Amino acid sequence: MRAEVHNSCLFIIPLALVRLQLLLPRLQVSDMVATLSLAGSSYLAPFLQLKEQIQHEAAAAQDNVRFLACLERPCQALSKASPLEIPGLLPQILDCIRMIWSLSRCYNTPARISGLLRRLSNEVINRCCAALRLGDVFSGDVMGPMEALQQSMAAGV
Fold first, then answer.
1. pTM: predicted TM-score of the whole model, two decimal places
2. Separation CA 122–CA 79 (nearest Å)
3. Consecutive 10-residue runs of the chain (157 residues): their mean pLDDT?
4. Whose C-alpha in 29, 38, 81, 155 is 20 to 30 A from the C-alpha of 23?
5. What values do phi and psi take at 47, rounded to 5?
6. Rounded to 5°, angle at Cα 75 from 80 and 131
């Protein structure tokens, strides 16, 4: 759920599919299909199948971007949050995931939603781990790490 991963996954792949989708109706593609058809080419059926698959996947990618965009701001906030701030951010993120589950045509599969929830829980764990400084423990300051552990436990509730 880190911003870099989030941005690359959300926008690069769908943009490439959209560009491909925009190229398909062009005259050169239509001419190529007509030529393959006239020649009785065995490549025509696989090409048309691939064309249809590209159009379907591009539409799915656009739908995914539209729904996953609601996670961008709260996940960016989560990536910078302390364990104390995490419980306040989770309801908004979980509401977005619930909306995706309910309304998305393409992203509402159990595998994809559980993947989102897994990345969310991993980010909560990463944020809590980042708050714990082992150097403090080894230098004798146990109060700071104990407080960070208490906040981390509260973040997981």
1. 0.69
2. 11
3. 43 56 63 83 86 83 88 94 93 95 91 94 91 82 85 79
4. 38
5. -65, -45
6. 30
